[in-house]
């Protein structure tokens, strides 16, 4: 957890003395969190597994169908398109968003008075996703009122129907997602950059290293644990993206904006196919775990933990 | 950054300012457009300034939807959610940091592992569980299900481990019990951690949309994001002035609060690395 940069260091004496064997007290202190976890996470997760194996509309009898829901989803054109849309979104937002964030953080680390910019870049992070979606809806609209396309038209260019064209909508969603999450990654990287000892950079500079060389050979390797952690988080959150898309586009009207989470929501709360919805949700969980595992396997080649 | 410091600083400032303007543009456009009338939107969509200025959009938006009530709903839901999350996760963090018990390490790992399960994966069964409780279309569905927060436990455990053990030993010799130590010694000493976590949890609750969308039906129960989302589509397509004045009504108080506490908020989010998820 490299990004827990601000957490205080462990003092030498922790873990002794008052830390006595005291099972009864431990149970008492843990009880509320464990209870909440059981009721609102563990039980629903188990229930999801059960539901994924039955056919049920919420009212009638439940029919056991084995893995039928999974095979139905995995061969369903709508679901496969949702997987592809989800993957496309991650493939655009994660690399573009993180590269931009690293560059901006490196820029901020190189100037005095970065506090002002930090605030500017961070403002979208604290803004509700619904408001963000509404603002961008007005900017990206393809009618005469959309400021982006109207401006492009004045310049003699013809902007696409960002929110209506299934081929372009993922790009539009990616732009909005990157805009709204950029600031968070910037401050995380900035915090990471501030842990790099200035003596190392100074020594390299005295040895005649160029700024580009220092960035490549010192900054990037030393920042790599933070970059890795942010990549994992960014992939997971782009797999879970829902709020902005749902308000910005209304996926019901644009198949290009239907992600896996939208399928889960639609199957469950619009079609009342609880079994199908749970199966789609569990496929999402497995995909998330798989991609995270692959990232952890790949990090060994790219991430430097020794300082 | 030694070489040609002045030129380099200038170039960096220029590019960062350009990026900053791009970040700012949507907010500026929201504010300007929120004062435009339908007539101007139709005739001159790319004009920067409203002409004439139409402040009436704001009372219109307020009259259309019960924003005051939604603000109160969002505020008290977030406050209760924060209080419950801070108290219970600090308790659990204390147990993991300072009480020796069998299976402590394994339980902690299990705790953190549950963080991997996305909310959406359990949304349908969670709905069914809450329906059993009679909590659907009730604020209880927004206050309680997110209280279990392994990330919060992890963060506070780090802070508790940094509290000097001597403080606890001294209190213990004075005859203080576990709860007194936790309440009188540990909690006051991890205030910065509680503050940071409180901000993160508050923002997550305040801005949350998925849970209100799924669990609430009654209009008078709506939170700010849920109410605001009803301005998307459905209305006369061109009344962007109204839509954006509604957005401004929901965004501006948050932004003012952010600007006041920006240093604390940014540091808290940077430290968490998870941004309220």
From TrEMBL, chain A:
<feature type="transmembrane region" description="Helical">
    <location>
        <begin position="274"/>
        <end position="298"/>
    </location>
</feature>
<dbReference type="InterPro" id="IPR035906">
    <property type="entry name" value="MetI-like_sf"/>
</dbReference>
<comment type="similarity">
    <text>Belongs to the binding-protein-dependent transport system permease family.</text>
</comment>
<keyword id="KW-1003">Cell membrane</keyword>
<feature type="transmembrane region" description="Helical">
    <location>
        <begin position="168"/>
        <end position="193"/>
    </location>
</feature>
<dbReference type="Pfam" id="PF00528">
    <property type="entry name" value="BPD_transp_1"/>
</dbReference>
<keyword id="KW-0472">Membrane</keyword>
<dbReference type="GO" id="GO:0055085">
    <property type="term" value="P:transmembrane transport"/>
</dbReference>
<keyword id="KW-0762">Sugar transport</keyword>
<feature type="transmembrane region" description="Helical">
    <location>
        <begin position="120"/>
        <end position="139"/>
    </location>
</feature>
<protein>
    <submittedName>
        <fullName>Multiple sugar transport system permease protein</fullName>
    </submittedName>
</protein>
<feature type="transmembrane region" description="Helical">
    <location>
        <begin position="89"/>
        <end position="108"/>
    </location>
</feature>
<keyword id="KW-1133">Transmembrane helix</keyword>
<keyword id="KW-0812">Transmembrane</keyword>
<feature type="domain" description="ABC transmembrane type-1">
    <location>
        <begin position="83"/>
        <end position="295"/>
    </location>
</feature>
<feature type="transmembrane region" description="Helical">
    <location>
        <begin position="23"/>
        <end position="50"/>
    </location>
</feature>
<dbReference type="GO" id="GO:0005886">
    <property type="term" value="C:plasma membrane"/>
</dbReference>
<dbReference type="InterPro" id="IPR000515">
    <property type="entry name" value="MetI-like"/>
</dbReference>
<keyword id="KW-0813">Transport</keyword>
<feature type="transmembrane region" description="Helical">
    <location>
        <begin position="214"/>
        <end position="239"/>
    </location>
</feature>
<dbReference type="InterPro" id="IPR051393">
    <property type="entry name" value="ABC_transporter_permease"/>
</dbReference>
From TrEMBL, chain B:
<feature type="transmembrane region" description="Helical">
    <location>
        <begin position="194"/>
        <end position="217"/>
    </location>
</feature>
<keyword id="KW-0762">Sugar transport</keyword>
<feature type="transmembrane region" description="Helical">
    <location>
        <begin position="136"/>
        <end position="156"/>
    </location>
</feature>
<feature type="domain" description="ABC transmembrane type-1">
    <location>
        <begin position="71"/>
        <end position="261"/>
    </location>
</feature>
<keyword id="KW-1133">Transmembrane helix</keyword>
<feature type="transmembrane region" description="Helical">
    <location>
        <begin position="108"/>
        <end position="130"/>
    </location>
</feature>
<keyword id="KW-0472">Membrane</keyword>
<feature type="transmembrane region" description="Helical">
    <location>
        <begin position="237"/>
        <end position="260"/>
    </location>
</feature>
<keyword id="KW-0812">Transmembrane</keyword>
<dbReference type="GO" id="GO:0055085">
    <property type="term" value="P:transmembrane transport"/>
</dbReference>
<dbReference type="Pfam" id="PF00528">
    <property type="entry name" value="BPD_transp_1"/>
</dbReference>
<keyword id="KW-1003">Cell membrane</keyword>
<feature type="transmembrane region" description="Helical">
    <location>
        <begin position="75"/>
        <end position="96"/>
    </location>
</feature>
<keyword id="KW-0813">Transport</keyword>
<dbReference type="InterPro" id="IPR000515">
    <property type="entry name" value="MetI-like"/>
</dbReference>
<dbReference type="GO" id="GO:0005886">
    <property type="term" value="C:plasma membrane"/>
</dbReference>
<protein>
    <submittedName>
        <fullName>Multiple sugar transport system permease protein</fullName>
    </submittedName>
</protein>
<dbReference type="InterPro" id="IPR035906">
    <property type="entry name" value="MetI-like_sf"/>
</dbReference>
<comment type="similarity">
    <text>Belongs to the binding-protein-dependent transport system permease family.</text>
</comment>
<feature type="transmembrane region" description="Helical">
    <location>
        <begin position="12"/>
        <end position="32"/>
    </location>
</feature>
């Amino acid at each position: 957890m490299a990004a827990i940069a601000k957490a205080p260091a462990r003092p030498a004496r922790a873990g002794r003395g008052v830390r006595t064997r005291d099972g009864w007290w431990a149970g008492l202190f843990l009880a509320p969190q464990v209870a909440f976890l059981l009721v609102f996470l563990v039980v629903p997760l188990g229930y999801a597994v059960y539901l994924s194996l039955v056919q049920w509309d919420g009212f009638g009898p439940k029919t056991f169908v084995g893995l039928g829901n999974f095979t139905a989803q995995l061969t369903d054109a709508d679901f496969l398109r949702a997987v592809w849309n989800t993957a496309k979104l991650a493939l655009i937002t994660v690399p573009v968003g993180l590269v931009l964030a690293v560059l901006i953080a490196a820029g901020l680390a190189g100037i005095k008075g970065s506090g002002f910019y930090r605030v500017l870049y961070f403002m979208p992070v604290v803004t509700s996703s619904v408001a963000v979606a509404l603002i961008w809806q007005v900017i990206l609209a393809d009618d005469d009122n959309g400021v982006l396309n109207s401006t492009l038209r004045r310049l003699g260019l013809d902007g696409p129907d960002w929110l209506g064209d299934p081929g372009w909508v993922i790009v539009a969603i990616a732009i909005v997602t990157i805009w709204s999450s950029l600031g968070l990654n910037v401050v995380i990287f900035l915090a990471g950059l501030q842990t790099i000892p200035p003596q190392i950079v100074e020594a390299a500079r005295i040895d005649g290293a160029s700024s580009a060389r220092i960035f490549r050979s010192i900054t990037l390797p030393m920042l790599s644990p933070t970059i890795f952690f942010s990549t994992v988080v960014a992939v997971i959150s782009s797999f879970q993206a829902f709020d902005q898309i749902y308000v910005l586009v209304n996926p019901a009207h644009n198949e290009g904006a239907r992600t896996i989470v939208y399928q889960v929501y639609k199957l469950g709360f619009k079609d009342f196919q609880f079994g199908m919805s749970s199966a789609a949700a569990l496929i999402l969980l497995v995909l998330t775990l798989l991609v995270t595992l692959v990232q952890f396997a790949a990090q060994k080649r790219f991430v430097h933990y020794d300082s | 950054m030694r070489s040609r410091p002045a030129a380099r600083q200038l170039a960096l400032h220029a590019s960062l300012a350009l990026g900053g303007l791009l970040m700012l543009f949507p907010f500026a456009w929201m504010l300007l457009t929120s004062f435009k009338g339908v007539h101007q939107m139709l005739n001159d969509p790319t004009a920067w300034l409203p002409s004439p200025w139409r402040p009436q959009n704001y009372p219109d938006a307020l009259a259309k939807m019960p924003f005051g009530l939604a603000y109160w709903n969002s505020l008290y839901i977030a406050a209760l959610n924060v209080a419950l999350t801070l108290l219970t996760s600090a308790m659990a963090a204390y147990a993991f940091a300072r009480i020796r018990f069998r299976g402590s390490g394994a339980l902690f790992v299990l705790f953190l592992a549950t963080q991997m399960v996305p909310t959406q994966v359990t949304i349908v069964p969670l709905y069914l569980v809450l329906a059993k409780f009679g909590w659907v279309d009730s604020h209880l569905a927004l206050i309680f299900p997110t209280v279990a927060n392994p990330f919060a436990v992890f963060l506070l455990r780090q802070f508790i481990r940094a509290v000097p053990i001597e403080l606890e030993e001294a209190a213990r010799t004075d005859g203080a019990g576990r709860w007194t130590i936790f309440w009188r010694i540990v909690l006051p000493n991890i205030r910065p951690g509680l503050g940071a976590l409180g901000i993160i949890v508050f923002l997550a609750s305040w801005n949350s949309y998925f849970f209100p969308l799924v669990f609430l039906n009654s209009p008078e129960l709506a939170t700010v994001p849920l109410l605001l989302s009803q301005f998307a589509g459905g209305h006369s397509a061109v009344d962007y002035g109204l839509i954006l004045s509604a957005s401004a009504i929901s965004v501006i108080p948050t932004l003012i609060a952010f600007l006041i506490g920006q240093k604390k908020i940014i540091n808290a989010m940077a430290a968490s690395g998870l941004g309220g998820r």
